[in-house]
Amino acid sequence: MSFLFGRFQAPEKNEKTDKVDQELNEQEQQEQQEQQQQQQQQQQKIQEEKPCDLENKPIRKRTTFLKNLMGNSSRNNSSSSLLSTTSSSSDQVNTLPPLQPLTLSGYKINTKHKLLLDLELASNIRNLLPARLQLFDTWELVYSLSQHGMSLNTLYRNSRPEHQLQEMKKRKKAEKGYAEAVVTRMISSDPSNSGFTIEQKRPHGYILVIKDEKNCKFGAYLNEYLKPVEHKRYYGNGECFLWKVEKYDPSKLNYNKDSESSKLNYNKDSASSSSSSNSRTATRFKAFLYTGINDNIIYSNRDFIAIGSSHGENGLYIDQSLSKGVSYPCETFGNEVLNSKGLEGAKYGTFKIMGLEIWRVGSLE
User: Fold this and answer.
1) Contact indicator for 294, 308 with CB cutoff of 8 Å
2) Residues 27, 28, 33, 37, CA torsion sign
């Protein structure tokens, strides 16, 4: 009986266990749903936060081969644009305002001979000067054969900047009153300024102009003033050059022959021309720049002045009396004979000095 009773009561226990299992399953499902909801909420938060991060932080991607090519072309375009901007800026620099017209000062009215250096010739020489000296629009006459006499020692003395400064102070003292002269003397005697010379303070250049018996003009530009040198030592630098103004007949020009010489020398034609009853002539300015073959630029002593030298021949030579001279082609400047040759085919030219001037470019104060 008991066995039978047990058999009839077993289904009730199974039903209870099934209910418990269902409840457990439902709880697990609820927990899984809650976990899924939490995960979905977290994903939504992450998705909401990602756009902010993307805006703040750049995304790095690998560049492809095509993108690299495009990047190089853009770089080339940017470099070309930079070159164009720099070229435009250089064009702006090159388009500088014109220089002020020149003023030639120091020539006395009562002098018999006319001025050797006219404004047209001075402007041609000015175009070849260093840029720092082109800005000076007043050139001062330092020495003139007609005003100061025929003396090499006087030429050397007047060429010294210290002597020029003394002469300038004398002129200013005569023009101004005594009190102002005393003040300027006190300023000039300041010990703080005594350690510097004029050459260290201001840049200078000197123009040598010669006129011979045939009215030919020629000369040189010198970066240093002429001075007697005791030992045989050349001075000057590559800024120096020789020049001449030659007469020619425009109708007889042969441009094919002149083209070869124009490659070696800097030839600049001036626009001045003159006509006569017999023939029509014109003048042109030629400059012969420093070649760099040797350093024999300027040598001067108590006996002569020599500018340019090669193989014992000078581009321009002036004797002690300042009355005669000679000109040879020399390697220092690659120049032609500066004066008109006496005979056709002559290798040099001798001349008599009818006029000689030295002009200073640059201020003393």
Assistant:
1) no
2) positive
pTM of the model: 0.64
Helical residues (DSSP H) of the chain, grouped into ranges: 2-56, 65-94, 119-126, 131-134, 145-148, 152-159, 161-175, 178-188, 198-201, 255-264
Residue 126 has pLDDT above 70, yes or no: yes
The model's pLDDT over 55-96, given as tens digits with 9 standing for 90+, comes to 455 555 555 555 554 555 555 554 444 444 445 445 544 566
CA gap 84, 229 in Å, rounded = 52
Residue 252 corresponds to which amino acid?
K
Contact status, residue 200 vs residue 220, Cβ threshold 8 Å? no
Q: What pLDDT, in 10s, does the model give residues 300-340?
A: 999 999 999 999 999 999 999 999 999 999 999 999 999 97
Residue type, 305: I
The 10 Å Cβ neighbour count of residue 327 is: 28
Residue 241 contacts residue 337 (beta carbons within 8 Å): no
**Model pLDDT, residue 49:** 57
Question: Looking at the predicted structure, is the pLDDT value of residue 146 above 60?
Answer: yes
The answer for 29, left when phi > 0, alpha when psi is -120 to 50, beta otherwise, is: alpha
Closest to 269 (Cα-Cα) out of 252, 288, 246: 246
**In one letter, which amino acid is 309?**
S
- Name the residue with higher pLDDT: 21 or 91: 21
Contact in structure between 322 and 155 (CB atoms under 8 Å): yes
Task: Say how many C-beta atoms besides its own lie within 10 A of residue 122's C-beta.
Answer: 19
**DSSP string of 42-110?**
HHHHHHHHHHHHHHHSPPP----HHHHHHHHHHHHHHHHHHHHHHHHHHHHHHSPPPPPPPEEE---TT
Phi-psi region of 308 (alpha: psi -120 to 50; beta: other; left: phi over 0): left
Of the candidates 295, 153, 139, which has an alpha carbon nearest to the alpha carbon of residue 204? 139
- The residue whose two tokens read 């020599």 is 306
